[in-house]
């Protein structure tokens, strides 16, 4: 009986750790960055010389998150500095967008105040009004 309980607790611990790793918002934000942003902005956020802006030196992360949320969702027709287009990303849901924005702000501006999905939803409603 003791062995059964011990094995059960061990399996429960493994499941718990596995689940907590999968639901880590920072980790999901990093994964979303790798999938959606890294091919242009590079693994370390350095960008590509004068073609793609560096995220490391961007003041965008230090401002309110609304600009970043709208920028990711709707993209840019032409970047004023580089003349390059940034594609829109309509595939991300509100949770994914919040996790990506939180990752970017923490990674490149050391901002640890999290943006909520409710804030993302409100920002996106305002973005639509401005279009």
Q: What does this protein look like?
A:
With 131 residues, the protein is an all-alpha fold. The chain has a single domain, classed as Cytochrome Bc1 Complex, Chain D, domain 2. It contains six helices and no strands. α4 packs across α5 and α4 crosses α6. The protein is elongated. One of its GO terms (molecular function) is metal ion binding. Pfam families: Cytochrome_CBB3.
Strand content: under 5%
Report how far the terminal alpha carbons are from each other.
Answer: 66 Å
* SSE arrangement, N to C: HHHHHH
The low-confidence parts are: none
The total count of helices amounts to: 6
Average of pLDDT: 84
Share of helical residues: 55-70%
Shape: elongated
CATH topology: Cytochrome Bc1 Complex, Chain D, domain 2
Integer count of domains:
1
Name the CATH homologous superfamily.
Cytochrome c-like domain
CATH architectural group:
Orthogonal Bundle
Structure summary, number of beta strands: 0
Radius of gyration: 19 Å
Major beta sheet summary? none
- Structural class of the helix and strand makeup? mainly alpha
CATH top-level class: Mainly Alpha
GO molecular function, one term: metal ion binding
InterPro entries: Cyt_c-like_dom, Cyt_c-like_dom_sf, Cytochrome_c-type_DH
Keywords: Heme, Iron, Metal-binding, Signal
Protein name: Cytochrome c
Keywords:
single chain; 131 residues; mainly alpha; Cytochrome Bc1 Complex, Chain D, domain 2
What can be said about this structure in brief?
The protein is an all-alpha fold.
